[in-house]
């Protein structure tokens, strides 16, 4: 018997020798069809085409991003119109409440732009100005959320502003109650709205924050 190896086959019409064990087969010569895949392996996609999506219940191959996604891109910013509307409505209620009666004394009412007396005889001049300022800020944040969608920084600022407005509203109830006690009066509807309206604003900001980015189906 001869110990000589057979000469390698030609690239024109011949079959290339099998690759060493554990290595991928080399690409076929130009103009020839690719060899069939090994048992248990999927055929590679044609040149220039994306791989097919994974079967249900199987993990996608490394680098697979789906047919609607771009590699490295983020999902679109979700709309938070409900949360934005709640932020705007709560802010407007706080703003309007400043000009409604806060306290009634001797048959006359006074809104949040007047004078109030605390329990330690401290005089508060126009306390509703702080409410108006925060309400204008949160209205602007609500409008931004309505048109721009969920912007996390804007939603967090709205939460902080609404919490501050809630604390101020509770303080307004305190000074109006003290003022009413001095003249045997009563607390007006405008003051009662001050701790309630920020709760609506706060709820809207939390709803906007809870939204997550998702790829459209």
What is this entry, summarized?
The chain contains 4 helices and 5 strands. By secondary structure, the protein is mainly alpha-helical.
In words, what does this structure look like?
- The protein is mostly helical.
- The protein contains 4 helices and 5 strands.
- It has helices at residues 81-98, 128-148, 152-182, 189-210, and strands at 103-105, 108-110, 115-117, 123-125, 186-187.
- The strands form 2 sheets. It has a 3-stranded antiparallel sheet with strand order 2-1-5.
- A hairpin with a 5-residue loop joins strand 3 and strand 4 (123-125).
- Helix 1 (81-98) packs antiparallel against helix 4 and helix 3 (152-182) packs antiparallel against helix 4.
- The chain is rod-shaped, with a radius of gyration of 35 Å.
- It starts with 80 loop residues before the first helix and ends in a 7-residue tail after the last helix.
- The mean pLDDT is 80.
| Structural class estimated from helices and strands | mainly alpha
Shape: rod-shaped
What count of helical segments does DSSP give? 4
Count the beta strands.
5
Major β-sheet strand ordering:
2-1-5
Key structural traits:
about 220 residues, mainly alpha, 3-stranded antiparallel beta sheet, two-stranded antiparallel sheet, 4 helices, 5 strands, about 40% helix, rod-shaped
What secondary-structure arrangement, pairings included, does this model have?
Blueprint: H1 81-98, E1 103-105, E2 108-110, E3 115-117, E4 123-125, H2 128-148, H3 152-182, E5 186-187, H4 189-210
Antiparallel strand pairs: 1-2, 1-5, 3-4
